[in-house]
Structures are given as structure tokens and as C-alpha cells.
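Task 17 of the worksheet. Students: predict the tertiary structure of the chain below and write it out as C-alpha cells. Keep your answer in the requested format; marks are given for formatting as well as content.
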Amino acid sequence: MAAAARRGCGGARACEALRLLLLLGAALGPARAAVYFQEQFLDGGSNWHKRWMNSEHKPDLGKFKLTAGKFYGDPVRDKGLQTSENSKFYAISSRFKPFSNKGKTLVIQYTVKHEQKIDCGGGYIKIFSSNLDQKNLSADSQYYIMFGPDICGSETKKVHVILNYKNKPHPIKKLIRCKVDGYTHLYTLIIKPDQTYKVKIDNEMVASGNLEDDLDFLQPRKINDPRVKKPTEWDDRVQIDDPDDVKPADWDEPEYIMDTSAQKPEDWDDSVNGEWHHPMVKNPLYRGEWKPRQIDNPNYRGVWPHPQIDNPNYSPDLSIYSYENISIIGLDIWQVRAGTIFDNFLITDDEEYAEDFGDETWGETKGPEKEMSIKQSEEEQQRDRAAEEKYFQEKMKKKIEREKEHRRERAVRKATKKEEL
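Model answer:
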């Protein structure tokens, strides 16, 4: 790189200036971002066990294994922690040097691949303080931040953003949809000192806002003025009963009527069963309770704007974004069908660094991963078609053999009959 720079810099003095600039950039570049935690499992083997601790809270917790999965973009770079047992709870964590994000941006990022096309299970991570007992990590362990996708059935397909404030978890009020296509996706949460946040999926922003507005940390700044009541003449009914609509004379019919076609059973004993009565059946003419049709209210004035005042109980807190002794990242999840792979964990204070890291990891392998998956699907379809053709060929062969056998048997029977005649 230096030789190339010298060849194209245009003059000794310019080359020297460029060399100094490159040296300065190299010196300042790594210091630009504080990387608190970074895990890509590039060393392979069993070394990751030294950095990650399995919880012993329950004896039957699911086991993680290190693998790139069935399809991948790179067999080494795409290795991550994969859930391996169905219908299990999982709990594992890794510790790093404690830090505080006070006055700094906090970026939490990782990749998730639900290659099993998960039907119900978590894909989120949790951030803990340094005092967590890792061997007893469970769903009851108090965390600072919970972030990531959660899928269960057709209703739950969302990204969790839950922050702890005064020992109570506060979930985001916005619905953020997660990815469900079975490929690897990059999830990023950015929390800034100005109390704003961003959520990115695949390095594209999908949600943003103010922590105080989008999570119920504090009392509201404004409340309805309790001294003011809605005027009695204010009509906020959108629709009203039509005064010209009259109930039809033949409307009122009983819901149940006596079935006069029923006959008293021959073995009915009044002394034992009581006096026999005709049974009641649903009246086909019953039309329910009559209600007049609805029409637009000509006096509708809209929703009454209740005057608001400053909430006397509101107390601003400019530190709701910050945490002390951030020191552990963990996976504490339940999965019905296992197979999810977690990789490319990153905790830093630099949004740009995280974006570049995402491009250099997920960004470079996502294309080859998809190509491999498509190729595998096509090969599987070809195998299925070949197996199906083989099945029908064998079935047809057996049918032909049976018909030949039947013809031989018929010929033998005819010959025997001729001899008997």
C-alpha cells in the first residue's frame, strides 16, 4: 500500500505528507472505536468453551455446538453457536472487561440464522452487569438490555427492545418486524447519550426514536387537566340511532318454541319422571333483539380535546440510557425446533465501526450463503423427483409382472380345461 501511494503521490514532498497522513490514520484508526466485546469463533475447535460458560441452573438445558450449519457463505467465518436440541431452554454467557456507556454511544450487534425456519423460539441476546452468576443464568436473571428477534406462530414475529430502568424491564411500544426467511441477518441496536435509539436490520434502519417517548420509563410530561370537564353539549358520537327507523310489527318472536310434533315416549312414567312436556326448540323466526339502524350524527363535533397541564409527578432523568459495569453478554432462550446459529457478536461505542464490521462479516457471506441454499434446494428437488420417478417405475414394473403372471395363470387354466374336456 505504501509503495502504491509513493508511485501515485506526485513529488517527494507530497509523498512525505501522504506517508505521515497514512501513519496518523493507522495510529488513530483503532483508537477511534472502543470495542468492548467481539466474538466470531474464528479459532474453531473447542476454544470457544473457554470464553463461553454454560448455565447449570437446570440439569436439562439444551446444548450449543459450533457449526456453520447446512448452508453458508464461508465454512470458517460463518461458524457460530447453534442450538442443537428441540423443545429446550438454553442459557450460555460470555464475560468481558466491565465498562459504562455513560456519555457514550452503545452499539450491540450480532447475526442470527434460523436455518430451521423456526416456528416458535427466541433469537435475542441479553446484556448483564458484572455481578451476574453465570452458572445460574436463567429467565429470572436480571438483565440490562434484551434485544433481538422472537418468533412464535403467525402472531409473534417481532424484534424485542427491552431496557431495564430502576430494576424493572420496559419494552418498546413500537412493533418492529423481524426476518423469517431462514437466512443469516444482522441485528443492531444503537443507544445514544441524547436518549435516542436506532434499530437496524441488515445495516438498514427499521426503527428510531426517543427512549423516553417510546418506552414507559417516566411519568408523562403532560396530563389531562382534572379541573376541566367535557362540556355537556359536546357530542362526540360518530353515529346515532335513526329516529325514523321503526321496529317491524312482526319482529318480536320468542327465541325458543314448543315442538308440538314430538310425542310422549311410551315408556315415560309420570310418577318417576314427572309430567311430560313438549321439548323446546330454536324458533326459526327469531331475529334477535331489534336495534334501529345507525346513521351519521349531524351534531358530531369530533373528539373533545381535553386541556393538558404539566404533570406535577414528572421528573426528568437524563441518564435512563446509561448502565454501569456492563460485563456479560448471554443467550437465554427457549426453542421448540432447534437449529438457530448466533455469530458475529459486537459491543462497541462506534456506530460506523459496527456498520463496517457488519459489512465485512455478514455483508460478504450473505450472497454465497443464499446461493448455496438455493443450490441445495434445487438438488433436493432433483433427488425427490428422481426418487418419485424410481418409485413409479418400480410400481409399473411390478404391475406389468403381475399382469404377465396373471396371463400365464390364465393360459395354464385354459390348457388344463382343454385337457379335461
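Marker's comment: The helical segments are 2-7, 12-32, 48-51, 211-214, 270-273, 351-360, 362-420. The domain at 32-222+319-375 is CATH 2.60.120.200 (Jelly Rolls).
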